[in-house]
Design goal:
The protein is α+β, with helices and mostly antiparallel strands and 372 residues long. 47% of the residues lie in helices and 15% in strands. Helix 9 crosses helix 12. ATP-dependent carboxylate-amine ligase which exhibits weak glutamate--cysteine ligase activity. It comes from Rhodococcus daqingensis.
Length: 372
């Protein structure tokens, strides 16, 4: 179903390239990108040579988005297989060295020179959702309205408990590794687009960032598109889980745009409160308690998800998606997110290799192999 009056959505997914037997990272992204382009789906190089990124086109409904994401994973996996690798959708490397070479492009070499170990120890994969918001001032205000809900999205999407052969103790260890960058995690509150631009300019001038593209906050006005970009999520184990997160993000942005249009003031939430809520979501995911940043109260994970669903219900109804999203969220709460699945698999098998092998299969769930 098409909804031309609703904003479009697009998704970027980052993946790891791993050895099919050992699960160790393979530094073959240049060759994989070249082969995928020949197969009809351009991939992007990511910072580490064991990473690639897919980009969906502009989509107007969840069905179309799902089709494009399935195709992109299929092509990326096929290209990887032709170079002896498997495509893996996890937020961190379950096994591998502490450092990895950066991809062979000028930008990533500049990052390695400027940021050293921080760039060389990357190897983490996220899911970035873009929602069309044409006006730049509105984009900044949308970020103000949406930022309290980022920890709930993180809890739902956590998919990186294992790192370098051990359980990190966190549902999203990617979030903790990512927080080492100077501009990452929950964003501050901005009074205006000018205030946002002034802070970014200061960060570039003092050499904390190469440029605006290195603004890595969990939600931001895109540096190159007329969109709000939500970057809080780990890469999802399956396409259907990606579509769920993307639909929630789309509805959250629509809800925020409506609030801006009404002249509602964004919630007055301090940055430290939001950081603590995000850290708790990274640690516990869908297990245990979390912090409701609006009230500073500890609440069960299921309650946080209920509150988010209620917050975006009108937008989901406008998209014709409420019943589907409600059912999908119930399944996630009952079955667990990627972090819970990884831990259960590790506990049952006592093998990182088995986790990787099973996770590469889940990465391609519902994907149809290319004809020989």
């Amino acid at each position: 179903m098409s909804h031309p009056t609703c904003p479009s959505v697009g998704v970027e997914e980052e993946f790891l390239l791993v050895d099919p037997e050992t699960g160790l990272p393979q530094m073959r992204n240049s060759a994989v990108v070249s082969t995928a382009t020949e197969l009809g789906v351009p991939l992007q190089l990511e910072l580490s040579q064991c990473q690639v990124e897919t980009n969906s086109p502009v989509c107007w409904d969840s069905g179309g988005l799902r089709t494009h994401l399935l195709e992109a994973r299929t092509i990326a996996a096929t290209a990887a297989a032709r170079h002896g690798s498997r495509l893996l959708a996890t937020g961190t490397l379950p096994a591998g060295p502490a450092r990895m070479p950066v991809s062979d492009c000028d930008r990533y070499h500049a990052m390695a020179r400027r940021f050293g170990t921080l760039a060389l120890e990357q190897g983490i994969c996220g899911c970035h959702v873009h929602v069309d918001v044409p006006d730049r001032e509105t984009r900044v205000q949308v970020c103000n309205h949406a930022r309290p809900w980022l920890p709930t999205l993180l809890a739902l999407s956590a998919n990186s408990p294992l790192h370098r052969g051990v359980d990190s103790g966190f549902a999203s260890w990617r979030t903790i590794l990512w927080s080492r960058w100077p501009v990452s995690g929950p964003p501050p509150f901005f009074d205006s687009a000018d205030a946002y631009d002034n802070l970014v300019a200061m960060l570039v001038d003092c050499d904390c960032l190469l440029d605006e593209r290195m603004v890595y906050w969990d939600i931001r006005p895109s540096s190159h598109l007329p969109t709000v970009e939500v970057r809080v999520s780990d890469v999802m184990p399956t396409v259907d889980q990606t579509v769920l997160i993307a639909t929630l993000v789309r509805a959250l942005v629509m809800t925020a745009v409506s609030a801006v249009d009404r002249g509602d003031h964004p919630p007055d939430i301090g940055l430290e409160t939001l950081r603590i809520a995000n850290w708790m979501a990274a640690r516990d995911g869908l297990s245990g308690q979390g912090l409701d940043p609006r009230t500073s109260e500890s609440v069960p994970c299921a309650r946080r998800v209920e509150l988010l669903l209620d917050h975006v219900r009108d937008a989901l109804d406008e998209l014709g998606e409420f019943r589907r999203v409600e059912a999908a969220l119930k399944r996630e709460l009952a079955q667990g997110n990627g972090a819970i699945w990884q831990r259960n698999t590790f506990a049952n098998s006592h093998s990182i290799g088995e986790v990787v092998r099973s996770a590469t299969q889940r990465t391609l769930e519902n994907c149809q192999p290319l004809p020989a």
